[in-house]
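[agent] plan:
  1. take the single chain provided in the ticket
  2. run structure prediction with default settings
  3. attach structure tokens to the ticket
  4. add a short note for the reviewer (M.T.)
[agent] executing step 1
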Amino acid sequence: MNKKEISEIKKQFTPANCSIDRICGCYVDGDKNKKTEVKEAFLSLSEEEMFKYFDIFKKTLSGTLGKNLMNMEFPLEQEADGGTQEFLMRLRASRLTDDALLEAFYDKIIENYDYPENYYIILIHAVYDIPGKASDGTEMFDASEEIYDHILCSICPVKLSKAGLCYNAETNNIEDRIRDWIVEMPDVGFLFPQFNDRSTDIHGMLYYSKNAEQLHSTFIDELFGCTAPLSAGGQRDSFNALVEETLGEDCHYDTVINIHEKLNELIEAQKDEPDPVVLTKSEVKRLFEDCGVQEDKLEAFDEQYEMAAGEKSTLVASNITNTRKFEIKTPDVIIHVDPERVDLVETRIIDGRKCLVIPMEDDVAVNGIHVRVNGVDIDGRATLEAAVTEEE
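[agent] step 2 finished; step 3 output follows
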């Protein structure tokens, strides 16, 4: 699923467009006990409740593709009888009216979801009548040829509200506030099946994690039978390790800057596309070649890639570079540079020391105070000089 397709489904979470026909839920305490369950027609809820649920469902489809939101495909064996995908197919086909299936679903989550406090499992069934589209992209609601039959699950922490004082209008007095158990925005969730090319794709699902660095790998593996992807931070660390291992002693400042500039150019060129820029193993290798990495350094690239990221892993470009700033870090100095002005930072040997040289052509402020610079004069320019490593 891409951004446009996710947005199309999110638009259904309004009273005017609502395609949800049933909602079920299970409240679980910190000891993994089922405290209460909910089963009812969604449209029977009060308007206030519906709006609060809509916010939760929208949040379950929010975030950044490749970070909080991940497309996952089911292994073929999971589509056979008894597989995880086959179970979800039966759950969807039941329209959430099969109590035994619902209990089995809740039990799977309770067994594998590692959360020490109270939480609320919310499961909805919806049928979206997909409108056709004209050649100019406008929707034709009277030309629907397909329905998107799907389920959405949100797992929300339930926490006790903070203690405090409140105003009681009935007594006209300031009093101790009654503490309530509040259902918060989801921690994890999923949409099944995927909505790809504005059509049903039963071979995949869209997974959501509030924390992009804690994807709940065991939960993904046990509930869906899918291999959890590398987190955003994991992709960045794997890519950094790959660069260092591939370049070895030739891991120079200019080469690394060039690699990140190329990545930023790729992201910028496709910024209006609904899909994120994703690099396969061969595309990362081509990136290194375009940045001047010597052929002999790439002889063991495939092996190094598999060790760093995994044989079939892909890397989301926005996870392995920062389009907002470059960070240059030494043991004692950290420099943040606008990616468009990274050319301002040079490496020089000055008085026998390896240095970063930054021309000071504009105003300089120290802790917000504008100052005059009496720096080292190099090539007729005022500069700041920072030692990078030990003296030569």
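[agent] step 4 note for reviewer: Confidence is low (pLDDT under 50) at residues 387-392.
[agent] ticket updated
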